[in-house]
Design goal:
By secondary structure, this protein is of the alpha/beta class. It contains 13 helices and 14 strands.
């Protein structure tokens, strides 16, 4: 099978991890933690970085440090991973959904202002599959209504919006460094903060809210969301090779598009004039007129030795959220189409030209079968 993703570990990962093992700095203290936090924050154009154990934890801490109250609201897209909604719910606030832009698959910013109420406290744009959300209109709304922007940039390492890197556009931004991300620590994440007080708050919440003046004396509840020095060592080595990784991703996106653009009925990823798409995953959306959904198309590709993954199922269609009285009878047509008709192709950093050609040959063959 051609895998959907494989990490590329071709830099100083082994050297740095070996240093951790030889020196004994294997837990949540050590030189690589600060170096990775500082390096990633600088890369994204933010002053503060706080490393955590995964991207979901990053979202939870980012929302938690705002001090939201029951009844407060956060606006986010339905088409995203459930971690975004979890972060809002765990804070005691209420998630409010909008649909997706049919071209970029990111949140439809034209729908946001109508969802703003006196209870709205934050906006959470999600940069989907490597393409940025349209941020300037959101920033204008945030300034107008005194809202905080929390970017979910988990899938957009190195992506750019009007020349600025994703993760450097809001007050807070969140990253995942899971094994399938462009920069990986195996598991891991980070919150970037523009304000020093937010960064201090994040560090406290990450580490059980220990008091500086008295370690085991607690006046509030926190989390154990620390990243290890070993993971940070991996991350720093990955950061050093990010430009080569981005070059590989953009080659992949261009090559797929060149081969598949002529196939009528397949919507391919776009790159808007104001964006730099890093093609974290290369997605396809099948026109319903082809007569199959993404699940069936995936089965056909699997029979040819090609692994795929489905797109997200919208938050408004999640049974576990319906059980909590959320989003019942809400409809988001673009998110629904993406969920039913969307899948992504092998997109890892180890993907070879021969593998990419084989994937395209398989997609072309199944497209021809559907058009006979």
């Amino acid at each position: 099978m051609i895998p959907v993703n494989e990490p590329r570990l071709s830099g100083k990962e082994l050297e740095y991890v070996t240093e951790c093992l030889q020196t004994g700095w294997i837990s949540s203290e050590g030189r690589f933690i600060e170096a990775f936090e500082r390096g990633w924050a600088e890369y994204c154009g933010m002053p503060h970085g706080v490393a955590v154990c995964n991207g979901t934890a990053a979202l939870e801490l980012a929302v938690a440090c705002l001090g939201l109250q029951p009844g407060d609201e956060v606006i986010l897209p339905s088409f995203t991973i459930i971690s975004c909604v979890l972060a809002v719910l765990y804070s005691g606030a209420t998630p409010v959904l909008v649909d997706s832009d049919p071209r970029t698959w990111c949140m439809d910013v034209s729908q946001v202002e109508a969802k703003i109420t006196p209870r709205t406290r934050a906006l959470m744009p999600v940069h989907i599959y490597g393409h940025p959300a349209d941020m300037d209109p959101l920033i204008a709304l945030a300034e107008k209504h005194h809202l905080t922007i929390i970017e979910d940039a988990a899938e957009a390492h190195g992506a750019e919006y009007r020349g600025r890197r994703c993760g450097g556009l809001g007050e807070l931004s969140c990253f995942s460094f899971y094994a399938n991300k462009i920069v990986t620590t195996g598991e891991g994440g980070m919150v970037l903060a523009r304000d020093a007080s937010h960064a201090d708050r994040l560090r406290s919440l990450r580490n059980l809210c220990f008091r500086k003046e008295r370690r085991f004396y607690h006046t509030e509840l926190g989390h154990n969301f620390r990243l290890t020095n070993i993971q940070a060592a991996l991350g720093l080595a990955q950061l050093e090779g990010i430009e080569a990784a981005l070059e590989q991703k953009r080659w992949m996106g261009t090559a797929y598009t060149s081969r598949l653009a002529a196939l009528d009925g397949l919507q391919l990823p776009v790159e808007e004039s104001w964006a730099k798409n890093v093609y974290w995953m290369y997605g396809l959306v099948l026109d319903e007129r082809l007569g199959v959904d993404a699940a069936e198309f995936a089965r056909r590709l699997s029979a040819r030795g090609i692994m795929t993954r489905p797109f997200f199922l919208g938050m408004h269609e999640q049974p576990v959220l319906h059980e909590r009285g959320l989003f019942k009878d809400e409809k988001y047509p673009v998110a629904e189409k993406l969920a039913r008709q969307g899948l992504y192709l092998p997109s890892g950093l180890t993907l070879t030209k021969a593998q990419l050609d084989e994937v395209c040959t398989g997609v072309e063959a199944e497209w021809q079968n559907l058009n006979r």
